[in-house]
Description:
By secondary structure, the chain is mainly α. It folds into 2 domains: 12-148, no CATH class; 153-192 and 201-355, no CATH class. The protein is built from 12 helices and no strands. It has helices at residues 12-29, 56-74, 82-104, 114-136, 138-151, 155-171, 204-226, 234-256, 268-284, 289-305, 311-314, 328-355.
Amino acid sequence: xxxATRTPPSLLPHYLAALYALAIxxxxxxxxxxxxxxxxxxxxxxxxxxxxxxxxxDIAVNVVAYAPFGFFVALMPRxxxxxxxxLVAVAAAAALSFAMETLQMFLxxxxxxxxxxxxxxAGATLGALVGIALARSGPxxxxxxxxxxxxxxxxxxxxxxxxxxxxxxxxQANPGIPLFATTFESLPDVGSSALAxxxxxxxxVPLVQGAHSGLQLLGVGLFLALLLNDRRRAGSAVLLLIxxxxxxxxxxxxALIKPSAWSSWLAPGVSAGIAxxxxxxxxxxxxxRPVQVALAAIALLSSLLTTLLAPDLLFARAPxxxxxxxxxxxxxxxxxxxxxxxxxxxxxxxxxxxLAGRPRWGDPx
Length: 365
């Protein structure tokens, strides 16, 4: 009598924790220069006086930033008791935060503070508690596991794909970058004049924005479709992805940018590109799987190349005058999300070729 096959445990929390730790390191250490030794007699940040300018917003940002990391790490050690999960998550967050704060002492543009360390640990603690509660909830855990098993390709390759998709979706929270784009708007950073219309006859930027967004939508949509077990679910899954991206971008725009610039993340060229990409995607999801893999990779890589036709888009800086806040955390957030969105097509394309060897929809796995 053959032994029952056992489904291998999901590594999705591990991938999410690793990717999120890389994001924290990038946001904590940018601009990565100049690296200088602290001045003589500078006390270690644990024993230094509190920074003179510190707001509740700064503390809240640090708490929120580390909460997902604590959540993901708490879901990793499956066989540990709840207390063990909690201690692992808090210890990992404390070690990561301590390393980042220590390295920030060598960056004159950053400020290492024990307040940041405490806020980061507090955020990870909250996230770990939520993760433990989820792990101990039998019905919730069963529903999530069943959804993962029935909808998406199994194994580590599927887990990594879902982690990449989650990271892309979170990066959409930057309203300074148009929907399904990877670069900031080409707008002069001069107050209200940043909203001035393009000169008559200047159609290059809207055209590039449209091509960029359309290709991104086609590539990301096919990436999701290739992660599904059943082709018949591709339409609803892609619609859910697009709708979620709209909601994330809209909420971020409402919260972070000025009312007069609320629609800047959905420019006319972007809207036209999204519409064209959606039409192409509706037909592409029915193509043979190898064709989809090739088309998705071509679309994602081409979306990066289109920006070369308009260098102003590629090198445009974050339009800080559009935002309602001017805190240093905003600079870190802008830099992190832009880097993620620029690197994502490259990493996703490499992952697509690993998916190319998966069985076709409907075949046994």
